[in-house]
Amino acid sequence: MTTAYGVREALGTEDREACFAVRREVFVEEQGVPRELEYDTYDTTAVHVLAVREDGLPLGTGRLLHGADAVGRTGADASVGSLGRLAVSKAARGLGVGAALVRAVEDVARERGLSAVDLHAQTHALGFYERLGYEAYGPEFPDADMPHRAMRKVL
């Protein structure tokens, strides 16, 4: 099945709500992440990206933390961004939406002059990120009671 979709920076309340709806579907409902852990203060300052089908149905989302927010999340310097909250609705998996969202976040990072992007990947998704050029580092750690690894890609 081929589905035409586009990826864009989420602008305005309607786009943000679409991002949050995808995250609620994937993280809260599907994976059981507590709602209070899923949404945080970074949501107000992050750059969000949104994948939408031609008819406007939201398919996926991700966000980029940069500057002081990224330093607080990654412990790295301010030239490293933090990709997070990457979520693709169940109906859109296997269509390339996740990879398109990662590329969009990387494009935003480059536009802001960042030299690298870090992320905390659920361990089952390591191969996905490795195919996109990310390298794991450090030990496995729990986040929302799920195993994760830190990963980085130099831009």
UniProtKB/TrEMBL annotation:
Keyword terms, alphabetized: Acyltransferase, Transferase
Keyword Transferase: yes
Enzyme class: transferase
Record domain N-acetyltransferase: where: 5-155
Gene Ontology terms for molecular function: acyltransferase activity
CDD domains with a match to the protein in the record: NAT_SF
Top-rank taxon, per record: Bacteria
Cited Pfam families: Acetyltransf_1
Assigned EC number: 2.3.1.-
Protein name as annotated: GNAT family N-acetyltransferase
